[in-house]
Every structure is written in C-alpha cells, then in structure tokens.
Automatic annotation (TrEMBL):
Natural source organism: Pleodorina starrii
Role noted for this protein: Component of the cytosolic iron-sulfur (Fe-S) protein assembly (CIA) machinery. Required for maturation of extramitochondrial Fe-S proteins. Functions as Fe-S scaffold, mediating the de novo assembly of an Fe-S cluster and its transfer to target apoproteins. Essential for embryo development.
Gene this protein is translated from: PLEST008001
Protein name: Cytosolic Fe-S cluster assembly factor NBP35
Signal peptide: none
Miscellaneous comment: Although plant and algal NBP35 proteins lack the characteristic CXXC motif in the C-terminus, thought to be required for Fe-S cluster binding, they can bind a [4Fe-4S] cluster in the C-terminus. Also, in this linage, no CFD1 partner protein homolog as found in other eukaryotes can be found.
Extent of Polar residues compositional bias: 17-27
Amino acid sequence: MVSSSTAEVSALPDVPQNANQHCPGTSSDQAGKAAACAGCPNQSVCATAPKGPDPDLAAISERMSAVKHKLLVLSGKGGVGKSTVSAQLAFALARRGFEVGLLDIDICGPSIPKMLGLEGQEVHSSNLGWSPVYVEDNLAVMSIGFMLPNPDEAVIWRGPRKNGLIKQFLKDVHWGSLDYLVVDAPPGTSDEHITITQCLQSATSTAATPGGSSSVSGSGASAIIVTTPQDVAVIDVRKEVSFCRKVGLPVLGVVENMAGLVTPLERCSFTATDTAAAAPAAAAAAGDAASGASGASGAASTAAEVDVDVTQQVLALLAERFPGQRLSVLAEVFRAGGAADRMCSDMGVQLLGRVPLDPGLGAAADAGLPVVGPPGGGEAGDTEGGAAAGGAGGVAVAAGPCLPALMAIVDKVVGRTGGKGREDGGPTGQ
Ligand SMILES: Nc1ncnc2c1ncn2[C@@H]1O[C@H](COP(=O)(O)OP(=O)(O)OP(=O)(O)O)[C@@H](O)[C@H]1O
Ligand SMILES: [Mg+2]
C-alpha cells in the first residue's frame, strides 16, 4: 500500500527528498545551478547529470499507449465547474460501457475524491504500479486526495514537485487499457497544464480514432474547455483556448456551465406584496402623483408595502392547474449575452453544450454520485437516496434539468472521438 504520508508523496524523482526547499527539480536546466541549490547535498550530482530527454517520458508513453483518448478538462477560470463536468463525464462514459480513468491533477485543491464518493480511500501498490481507486470495475480514479493524511491540510508545493507527481500519475499508475482518461485540471495555464500536455503529447496512442474528428491529435489528447456565461469568465477562458493553440492541444469543444438556473418548482418560494396593507398609502400617493409630487409617491408606497410569503398558495394553485406534471422554473442568473457563443465563433472552437445551474447537479457532486443514475436504469434523483433526493433534503426531485444537456455533451464527446459504448458493441476489449 502506498503510504498516506506526505513524506512518500514528496518522494518524487524530480525533487530528491533531501533537497533544499526551492529545488528547481532534477530535470530542470537550473538543476544544481539555481540559487536554491546552494548547500544542497545533491548540488554537484544535479549540476553534472545529463539533461537530455526526460527518461520518464518513455515509461509514460508506454502506459499511455494503452489509453485511447485523453480528455483534459480545462478552464482559465476557477469555480466554473471543471471538476463537476469531469466527474459527470467520467460517470456517464463508464455507464455507457467504456473503460474510463479519471485523473485529478488539481494538486492543491483536489475535488475528485469527494465528487466520486471516494473520500477516505487510499492508493495501493503492487508490482504493476499504483492501483487507482475503483468506483466501478470500469471507472478508475487517481488523485493526490487519496494520499493526504488530513484532507484539511494545505498542499503547498512549487511547480517542480507538482510536475513530478503528475508524471508519477501517468507513469506509475496501473491504468490498464482505457477508452478514456479524463483529466481534471486546476484553473489556469500553469505548471500542471504544461506538464500534463507535454507528457501526453509525448505519448503516442496505439488507438486509431475511427470516424473521429480531425481535432483529435495523434496522441489522442484533446481539451474540453469549461466556462460560465459571464464576460469575466469568458475573458479568462479565451486565454485557455489560446494556451491550447500554443501548445498544440486540439480543443474538442466548449461547455458553457451555469447557463441559467433551472430548478424544480418545489424549491422556489414566492412572496407577494400585500397591496391591501399598502392601499391607503397608495391612494395617498396617487393623489400626490396627480398633483405632480411623483417622487414623494414612490417613497410613501414603498414604506407601506409588506411582503407576504404565499409559497403554499402558489404551489397549490399550480398543482391544481397542472395536475400530475413536474414543473420547473428557468431563470437567467448571469447575463445571457452569448459571450461563450462569441468566443467559440471568434476562436474557431465548437460549443459542446450548455448546462444549466441545477441544484440536483450540485447535490450529486456533494454526494459523490452520478446524475446519470445507478446501473440498471432510472435516474439518480428519481430514487430514494439518489443524488438529487439527498440534496433536496429528502424531497424526491428529478435527476435534474441538467441531465439532457450533460448527456448531449457526452454524446458529442463520444461522437467526436469516434468511440462506441458497450451497448454498441465497441468498447475496449469487446
Ligand atoms: N451546473 C451546475 N449546477 C449546480 N451546481 C454546480 C453546477 N456546476 C458546478 N456546480 C457546483 O459549483 C461548485 C464549483 O464547481 P467545481 O468544483 O466543479 O468547479 P471547478 O471549476 O472545478 O473549481 P476549481 O477551479 O476550484 O477547481 C461545486 O459546488 C459544484 O457542485
Ligand atoms: Mg476543480
């Protein structure tokens, strides 16, 4: 078993255990020469060691050659739903019968153990390497979160150390043959992104992409970019697309997340302004308005208004009007200005789909469950104890209005990578 101590996590080939605090990493051009190397016991070895091609790349290439498609879920912006999309994409692909791996390279903020319901799990090792943690027999997960003794403890690592662990995840984890390796990345275009892209690009896939889009590179690596509708997010996300261009990573498409709020009616509350209480003031205001004192009228009427909770009455009326129907409410939370659409057309990338804000999806993430529901049919939220049911405080709600949107995105991902599900007779090994 791999120890859950940070000491072992830090035992990376790139940064010797006894290295100085700001070690640039043994593979760096600065190894043995940087200011931080002064006094380090490894200094002379590092300074004289050959700096040729990274020897890890051959091992990474071998492991990754058994992985057909590597999907990097990226965004220039934090908190837009990368981990949620990664988790639900992995669940959905596995449910369709693909062999799926989910790799969390958000070293400082790993969300994947929680979102896959794997908190407290540990990584084991065998002669084949580190074994990932399995959700199902065709869904394997790896995250630094499995290696930390205390989930609340901050991981304060500089780039070389993060890079070393990411390489280990690719090189030392026994992923086996996979149809898809979904990689959940931290926000931005930093060390982690450069390292994972370089490592994956160095690995050539044995898998062809029959019928697949030309956007999928020879290494089988491509990016799914996540944004939200606001300009502030899209501005940062444009940089991510530019990063992909610069490093030669094809963009499979863009997911616009949190695109409007869709929520079951039961979750809404309604208030009414008690105009009866306001009537005398309103009448007085009307008189004022007639005499031209419009400013005073507004103040008088506002002061007299009382908000009353009429949720029960409204729900009863709607239930009477729409018997047996499940009603949802759609609201545009963020500006629906089409910033993501514009970005896609400006930058020549395709929109994979729009996922609304959906309490069921947030609940599924918190519960570590798929919104696609348990094997054998049904949707998670439709069942007692399902994701959405838990999140709704025990009230059974639909798996979520996000479900059709998410599934349409999964369809496109599968279509654009040329994959087939078990139902179609074509996953790995079939
Ligand atoms: N469409 C959605 N509907 C409801 N909740 C959502 C939706 N998308 C994401 N969330 C919630 O928003 C929060 C942030 O999502 P998530 O952690 O996936 O973002 P992230 O981009 O991975 O963040 P970070 O940049 O910190 O890694 C989570 O609590 C998640 O459950
Ligand atoms: Mg995340």
